[in-house]
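JOB MANIFEST
job_type = single_chain_structure
chain_count = 1
residues = 304
[input]
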Amino acid sequence: MDKPVLVILAAGMGSRYGGLKQIDPVDDQGNKIIDFSIYDAMRAGFKKVVFIIKKENEEDFRTCVGNAVSKHMEVDYVFQDLNKVPEGFVIPEGRVKPWGTAHAILCCKDVIKEPFAVINADDYYGRNAFQTLYDYLTTHQDDDKFRYAMVGYELGNTLTENGSVARGCCVTDENNFLVTIAERTQIEKREKGAEYTEDGEHFIPIDLKTPVSMNMWGFTPSVLKEMESAVNQFFATEVEKNPLKSECFLPIEIDKLLQRGVATVEVLRSSDKWFGVTYKEDKPFVVESIAELKRQGVYPTQLW
């Protein structure tokens, strides 16, 4: 079996955060959240990382992240380009937003032939999560179905005090396999729990123990062909409805595979606490969390 590859989604615009948060340091040594994820992945056994970025950010990204990592792991770059669309499709006037995480994964189809893990650049997942996912990817392969995996976290451990978040909310069966996943793009913390809204006006309570996806997935290469079909369908049916902001979300497309009965997703539970920077106001908490992990000896003072 081929060695798994780590794929990092780093083409997001960081609109809520107000900047290119993927390369914003979170300690005095200049390390970013992405550095800690790559360090954990390397300790778990990953030997190669693929960064999905925007072409215009390439120089900054190489300087701030890629060049240091390339001394320890094989590094490749994939560009999520607004113009990478199905033949015959015209880019809507005024569109600047990337086409979504499913489209980002599809952009990797020419560089990935191995099983691979997918993570966000601006989320901290923890060492245990990477080890658990690496172990899965090196012991499972497709048979009569596509055999995928996802690391799940409790919703209550992934919320911020500083605004709404988007989460893939999951239902699992008694064997920890994913039954369905729904993308909730506006979940807000409340004094006694959390609520989400789909129209911006009416809020619905949601249990803090709901398992959620933080976009930490494990796939076989078969998912690339499936995402190609999904993206083609998205452009054919969805873009016209919301030409400037519609996105093809990875969790939604994986849910469609589950409902068709062609894939399974085993939900792997991590013992680590997730944290991330959605808003600038989240950064102090992240900085202190990283400092505490260093005090505990989980990480050295300087990673690279």
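[summary]
The chain has a mean pLDDT of 92.
The radius of gyration is 18 Å.
exit_status = 0
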